[in-house]
Amino acid sequence: MLLSRRRFISTSLALGAGGAFGAFPALADPAALNCVLIGDWGRNGHDDQRAVAVQMGKTAAAMGARFTVSVGDNFYEDGVTGVEDPQWESSFEKIYTAQSLQSPWKVILGNHDYRGNVQPQLDYSARSHRWQLPARYYTETQALPDGARADFFYLDTSPFIKKYLGSKVRIEGQDSQAQLDWLDKALAASTAQWKIVIGHHPIYTALDDADGEDHDQPDLIARLNPVLVKHDVPLYICGHDHCLQSVSMNGTTYVVTGAGSQTYTPRPAIRGGFASGAHGFMTLHITGGKLQYGLMDMSGKTIYAGSIIPA
Q1: In this structure, are residues 71 and 36 in contact, taking their beta carbons and an 8 Å threshold?
Q2: In the prediction, which pLDDT does 12 show?
Q3: Prediction pTM value
Q4: Computed from CA positions of residues 123, 36, 295, 53, in that sequence, does the dihedral angle turn out positive or negative?
Q5: Model pLDDT, residue 270
Q6: Cα–Cα distance between 194 and 309 in angstroms, integer?
Q7: Cα–Cα dist 31/142, whole Å
Q8: Alpha carbons 238 and 73: distance in angstroms, whole number
Q9: What does the pLDDT read at residue 16?
Q10: DSSP-assigned letters across all residues of the chain
Q11: Predicted pLDDT of residue 210
Q12: Average pLDDT of adjacent 10-residue blocks, the chain of 311 residues
């Protein structure tokens, strides 16, 4: 049986470092599923990690965030050594202290996490009331207040990156093809109104490689992106690049929220996209008929906002 492809329309507004976008993010919208997303953060409170955490707590409270998503690189520079590692306190428990951030954290792994011992990050789920990392990759369905559903697919992208083989990023033994097959099957089985895929590494970005950095990830463009296109995934969220970005290409919007602590000043955006070196995080608001997202700086201003609706 041939299935018709579901199309999406993406709109956006860039506002610059000093702008604000009306009342966005929506404040405690009872019709929406609201959450906050952050990446590349674990630096013992340094590099503005603590300031970002304070503002993220305020924003999460104002919008009624149901949960927080960490898109990886949870502990710098070399992950953790065990569940008793002091970084659990200095980079997580004593930083994200707002009551609004005591709800579940949906966590994935980044390449810096693979420079340490990954297993304790899975094991910490058993001793924390909020840290949720049940497997290296997993899926979860969220019921929306209006009766619709959103399926979230949490990936482990480091094993896809060929240059990590034989490096300090210890991905040996991970079967990336098995993960890809799992994702293909899970997306095919999903009947949710929204399919949102979250990984640590970017696929496409709003930046070129003229600065010598590898913003786009060719390994993911070659292997992961065709699966997203095949299943009409409207939104891919990641970190890794230490800034805030958004770009839409061929029906998919790619958002980078990698500004949880250390950032840099990016080159001008390409592909009609947006990029900022502001420290900050992402907000997400979903109903059955519309998905909205914002990129927030650590002063609480929305510097970029976008929306996606079914065509």
Answers
A1: no
A2: 82
A3: 0.96
A4: negative
A5: 96
A6: 10
A7: 14
A8: 11
A9: 52
A10: -PPPPPPEEEEEEE--TT---TTPSPSS-TTSEEEEEE-S--STTTTTHHHHHHHHHHHHHHHT--EEEE-S--STTT--SSTT-THIIIIIITTS-SGGGSS-EEE---TTGGGS-SHHHHHGGGT-SSEE--SSSEEEEEE-TTS-EEEEEE---GGG-GGGTTSSS--TT--HHHHHHHHHHHHHH---SEEEEE-SS-SS-S--STTS---S-HHHHHHTHHHHHHTT--EEEE-SSSSEEEEEETTEEEEEE--SS----PPPP-TT-EEE---EEEEEEE-SS-EEEEEEETTS-EEEEEEEEE-
A11: 87
A12: 64 62 59 96 98 98 97 98 98 98 98 98 97 98 97 98 97 97 98 98 96 93 98 98 97 98 97 98 97 97 96 78
Token pair in block for residue 27: 């404040």
Tokens of 144: 């929306």
